[in-house]
Amino acid sequence: MNNNIGQYLVALGFIVFAGTMVYMLFDEPEYEEFVPAANNMVVPAAMNMASPAPVNPNLAPGNTAVPDYISPRVQLSEGHWQGMEVIELTAELKQKLKIPMELEGVLIDEVTLNAMESGMKAGDILLAIEKNRVRTIEDVVAFSKRLQNRKSVAMTVLRQDRQMVFILRSKEALGFTQAETAPMILPSDIMPHPYRGRCTKCHPIGTTGHITPDPDGIPLDVPPIPKGVNSPHRNRGPCQACHVIY
Q1: Which residues of the chain fall short of a pLDDT of 50?
Q2: What beta strand segments (E) does the chain contain?
Q3: What pairing do the DSSP bridges indicate for beta strands 125-129 and 152-159?
Q4: Residue pair 92/58 in contact by the 8 Å Cβ criterion
Q5: How much is the pLDDT for 107?
Q6: Contact predicate 43/34, CB 8 Å
Q7: Residue 64 to residues 45, 52, 185, 244: CA-CA distances in angstroms?
């Protein structure tokens, strides 16, 4: 009897150990350990009064900010292929769009170019590419790479509870899906959406992902113009709203 209990405990311990190892291999740690290297370390002056902070070779001279970071297991956010943009069909999206939770696929949230001409529409759910079952953006990338030299492929979508097949065509080779993560965000940015896990699950963190300020928000200098001059641009309203008239 005691021998059976001992064997049971040994087996249980082995299962717990194996489960822990698998978790450590595949789950990103909640707090990643920081291991400083002698030539790649930034130390605040208050922490080391004896000597100046070492120089980080990844940064411009005089810059002691943390370099841009992207997780090695970052989740893809969207894919682009022949005018079709697909995004992950998350549980949150299913709830918002009233899609059955058990449905697997990716959401087509925008179409232009060849995807639009094929007949696909924004709001379709992509289920398969040439009978290859699609469940994630990674699937779309992988299958499109296999078929990248073809000029047409069959795309199976779900539209309002009805399965439909469209032929995606191109005059040249179709190429493969270009994938992106969620946009880069600044360190300490305020989260603009419901909690979806650690920020680094989806976003790179840093300052090099966007032009700052956004060029669309930069006004050009408006020159004075003589009265009666022909407009060099389309009608945008009364000239005196923007220009000094002389």
Answers
A1: 23-56
A2: 78-81, 84-88, 106-111, 125-129, 132-133, 152-159, 162-169, 178-180
A3: antiparallel
A4: no
A5: 98
A6: no
A7: 11, 12, 19, 46
